[in-house]
Amino acid sequence: MSGFIDTRLKSPQVTCCEILDRPHAINAMGQPHLIRPLLRSALQLWLRSLVSQAERLEITIDASDRQLLRGQVPEVMLRVERAVYQGLYLHELSLQAADIRLNLGQILRGKPARLLAPVPAQLQTYVTEADLNQSLGSDLLASALATATQHLLPNRQFSVGQVTLSPGQIHLQGQLSGGKQPQTPGPACLSAHLVSQGAVLQANQVTLAQPGAPPPINLPDQAFPLGDATLQQLDITAEAIALRAQIKILP
């Protein structure tokens, strides 16, 4: 995407040879009742490849045997607990994907599983404050925070060292450097009230505070485009962020 955060999931090519023995997989082509467990195993392996770790992964496939034989899956529902996706720590994640087209014939012959077309998906996730701080080393979050702070503090550098939450707000604590007065280099806290507006994440009531400095400085509101994603719900408490969004999974 071309927006603030890359909200698309990139589908990897994952070989299913580890779970599909070739002769039995080929024989399954003529036995529709074997397709569902084989495809379930292939999808679980593919989805496992999206995350580096997960405590629990549940998958439900909604498709007839005839649809599966054509490589078509009308709906897949995924639930993951305590997962890590590209360095992002996720306490809970639910994904409902529709109109999935897979290279089933190749999957059953032990070839890599891959999507044949983009897949629309409904995403729900719950991320705790601790998850956010564990994720600070991920490229995805680091890039998003760097983009955000550059827009909120032009001509300044702000290195985020800790994230804290309060109802409706996110607070980035770190080191401020560069630029001119009235902000001086040193520890600082950048705060914003976040509001979901469809394809835009709106940051309102933005302030910059520094220890021992005058009252917090008010900064202009900012709107961050989310590219292909549509943010439908965003709830921030003192413990966690819960969001629901429409995203796209790419082949």
Can you walk me through this structure?
It is built from six helices and 15 strands. By secondary structure, it is an alpha+beta fold. The strands form three sheets. Strands 1, 3, 4, 5, 7, 14 and 15 form a seven-stranded mixed sheet that branches. The radius of gyration is 22 Å and the shape is elongated. It starts with 8 loop residues before the first strand and ends with a strand.
Q: What would you say about this model in short?
A:
By secondary structure, this protein is α+β, with helices and mostly antiparallel strands. 22% of the residues lie in helices and 48% in strands.
Give the N-to-C terminal Cα separation: 14 Å
Instruction: Spell the H/E element sequence.
Output: EEHHEHEEHEEHHEEEEEEEE
> In terms of structural class, how would the helical and strand content be classed?
alpha+beta
The helicity comes to 10-25%
Outline: elongated
As residue ranges, the low-confidence spans are: 12-30
